[in-house]
Amino acid sequence: MKIKLICLAIAAGIGLSTQVHADRLVSELIKPIEPAVVTAPEKVELGKKLWFDPRLSMSGFISCNSCHNLSMGGSDNLPTSIGHNWQEGPINSPTVLNSSLFVAQFWDGRAANLQEQAGGPIANPMEMASSHVLAVDVINSIPQYREEFAKVYGSKEITIGNITDAIAVFEETLVTPNSRFDQWLKGDDDAITQQELAGYETFKSIGCVACHNGPAAGGTSFQRMGVVEPYQTTNPAEGRVAVTGKDADRFSFKVPSLRNVELTYPYFHDGAYWSLEEATDVMARLQLGRELQEQEIDNVVAFLKTLTGDQPTFTMPILPPSTNDTPRPQPFGIK
Ligand code: HEC
Ligand code: HEC
């Protein structure tokens, strides 16, 4: 009889705890990141080569990885990026990690998806400074690339559409599952500390989660920077209004993901703040009208660091060599 009761109690206990855990996945507004499902491994390999290939730039020196360094959280850790001819970029380079989860690409959302986005930097005179025609010519002049494109796309002709498609499919694999926070979401109570949990509670109770939600803890909407108090910056970017033309969208930006945020400093579209403590303080004051205590800030920052997930790992691609027909790189001066 006694044993039966204990068994019942244990069963109820187990039932209760799995219930709590299942509830977290439903009730919490931040959802776990799922590992990438690779359905076209050869396309991913091709996209990875193109991602690392600086020959897509006029100088032959700048690749996607130059400004979205996968050894540094998919960012360049600079306030604004350095482009062709050492040009100072206009805006902070956002991470590419988990970017397949975002509602749109760029701070102002002007590209609908990753493929559309990838065509931008190749031809941007301040970034890779090539052109789509030149990029296709370069890739087309390399027989090993021709073979790979033929195998993956079933056509001898290499197009910019195929180049950007392969890059986008590679980027879709750049997700960061298994963060300690996700382990907690999935039911492991010990995955985060009491302080980190307290930080998450503050993050929710004061309203950060209203904008930073979904699997990427951001990337789901465009929001004004400076809801309660204006943001002071010398950066001329005006945000979403550049796309919609609506005055209400002035100074509205895509809410950045907070995944891996401890790796992607400096913060905000102008890269003006280097520490998460400062960024949290700015957010609390400007977006929510809240003056947080030092302890609360420390707790929130501790929570933010639990959002760092497994970084993408892979073997570095070996790029096929250029041929005598390959247009030569032009490192100095814009032609
Ligand atoms: C010279 C630096 C530089 C290079 C090279 C570069 N990018 Fe970027 N990238 C940026 C900057 C800066 C932004 C933000 C621009 C904006 O929002 O107006 C950006 C934005 C992005 C985004 C959008 C992320 C988001 O959260 O909205 C993706 C994806 C991306 N780049 C992928 C690529 C790919 C693919 C390549 C190579 C074909 C590439 N980038 C080359 C600097 C660079
Ligand atoms: C009203 C929506 C909103 C709220 C509420 C909000 N944020 Fe943000 N958050 C944004 C937007 C928009 C940006 C980008 C602003 C920019 O770069 O100009 C941002 C940027 C950030 C960044 C910098 C990320 C990066 O990569 O540059 C951090 C960190 C951050 N928020 C944390 C928080 C915290 C912590 C809270 C609560 C104290 C919070 N946010 C509340 C909308 C919001």
UniProtKB/TrEMBL annotation:
Any single GO CC term annotated in Swiss-Prot or TrEMBL for this entry: periplasmic space
Binding-site list for heme c 1: C64, C67, H68, H84
Post-translational modification: Binds 2 heme groups per subunit.
Cofactor note: Binds 2 heme groups.
Alphabetical list of Pfam families matching this protein: CCP_MauG, Cytochrom_C
Intracellular or extracellular location(s): Periplasm
Stretch forming the signal peptide: 1-22
Keyword line: Electron transport, Heme, Iron, Metal-binding, Oxidoreductase, Periplasm, Peroxidase, Signal, Transport
Cofactors (names): heme
InterPro entries, per the entry: Cyt_c-like_dom, Cyt_c-like_dom_sf, Cytochrome_c_Peroxidase/MauG, Di-haem_cyt_c_peroxidsae, MauG/Cytc_peroxidase
Single GO term (MF): cytochrome-c peroxidase activity
Stretches the record annotates as Disordered: 314-335
Alphabetical list of Gene3D superfamilies matching this protein: Cytochrome c-like domain (1.10.760.10)
Keyword flag Electron transport: yes
Annotated ranges, domain Cytochrome c: 42-150, 194-308
Keyword NADP appears in the UniProt entry: no
Binding site for heme c 2: C208, C211, H212, M283
Protein name: Cytochrome c peroxidase
Gene source species: Halopseudomonas litoralis
Lineage: Bacteria, Pseudomonadati, Pseudomonadota, Gammaproteobacteria, Pseudomonadales
